[in-house]
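Researcher: Watch the backbone:
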Amino acid sequence: MRFSASKAGLLKSCKFPFRPGTPCVDERGRAAINGDRFHKAIATYIETGVRPVETGRPLKWLEDRMDHATAWVDKNRRPEWRVEIAYAYQWRTGEARILGSNLGREYAAAGLKDDEIAGSADLVWLAGDTVVCADHKTGRSVTDAVWAQLEVLCLMAAKAHGARHACARILHATDYGIVEYERHFDELQLWSAAEQLKMDLAEIPEAWPEYGPHCSGCYCPARAGCELFQIRSKEEHHDAA
């Protein structure tokens, strides 16, 4: 499996899924599919001002969150917003570039090189010497894996735009409205993030499985064929019986 910013949380916990030759199956569950629908709908609204007509299940879940998200957009809209920006990052040298917009997961088709990694941010804008990366989230909570993704996105965006600082902003769509979270990264913190990412990626070729909550919490695509996961899962099931 090729690394991208959305898998940064998994990389911090276990590098084995990214090791060449590791069999992976993309287990996109209902929550992930619903999240994709939400992201496409809100991106369309931001760009066009027109709210897409959604059909199919779970319509109520999506409509409720879209009500909150569109209200947030209307209140906070900025002319400098850029939507669904994809970045390519050369992790060995620290160079970055804008790969395109609205690419989905088609990074390779857009020209991603073999020695680059990619990531996409829902909203990006510049505020002085700070680049802001905002991402909509629809999960039950904002986890460490979510922050890991935003840290990598901020690193990519700061390098691509030549910004000294970065701000990660999470827009968590809940039953009750949009809950905002924010973290700031100065030059030293961005440098530290780049060095840590470089070390993590360099360890992939020799990585071995690490068992933990990430096996299910990060939706690891390698777990179906991971012997350690199978063994430990059976042990836990036996202990609970």
The chain has one domain: 5-25+81-240. The helical segments are 8-13, 30-48, 59-76, 144-161, 187-202, 214-217, 227-240. Strands lie at 82-90, 95-101, 117-127, 130-137, 165-174, 177-185. The chain has a mean pLDDT of 89.
